[in-house]
């Protein structure tokens, strides 16, 4: 289970340190692609395969936009000896990653956020919204 919040700086070459705790669970190779809310997502390869299978099991007419969105910029990454992964320029642009980056665990995947955008996202989701969402999901 991926959980927690980690803050890093992305370097001028687009390399980003990935949390050691997450790397253990992500495996040697994992997939990073664009995601909802203008952030990036990192999936362990096994979880990425499940998503691919689910999409391929549905009507292409209904899933083509989702497939285009996810697959066009998807990149397999392997952390280097320092635990860094290379984030492509197109992915950095999508998420607005310039320097300060926050990586959060979200159960079976991790999200990669521009730190200011993550702070703004959190500020916009208060206890009332949380309560309503939990009630809707019957949690």
UniProtKB/TrEMBL annotation:
Domain of life: Bacteria
Keyword Lipid metabolism: no
Keyword Transcription regulation listed: yes
Subcellular location: Cytoplasm, Nucleoid
Pfam family of the protein (one): MraZ
Keywords: Cytoplasm, DNA-binding, Repeat, Transcription, Transcription regulation
Residue ranges annotated for the SpoVT-AbrB domain, each copy included: 5-47, 74-117
Subunit structure: Forms oligomers.
Family that this chain belongs to: Belongs to the MraZ family.
Protein's name according to its UniProt entry: Transcriptional regulator MraZ
Gene: mraZ
């Amino acid at each position: 289970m991926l959980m927690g919040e980690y803050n890093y700086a992305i370097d001028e070459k687009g390399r980003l340190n990935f949390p050691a705790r997450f790397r253990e669970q992500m495996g040697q190779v994992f997939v990073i692609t664009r995601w909802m809310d203008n952030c990036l997502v990192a999936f362990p390869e096994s979880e990425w395969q499940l998503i691919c299978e689910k999409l391929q099991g549905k009507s292409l007419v209904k899933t083509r936009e989702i497939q285009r969105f996810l697959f066009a910029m998807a990149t397999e990454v392997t952390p280097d000896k320092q635990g860094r992964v290379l984030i492509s320029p197109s992915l950095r642009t999508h998420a607005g990653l310039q320097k300060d980056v926050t990586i959060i665990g979200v159960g079976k995947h991790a999200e990669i956020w521009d730190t200011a955008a993550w702070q703004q996202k959190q500020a916009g989701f208060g206890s009332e919204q949380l309560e309503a969402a939990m009630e809707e999901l019957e949690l």
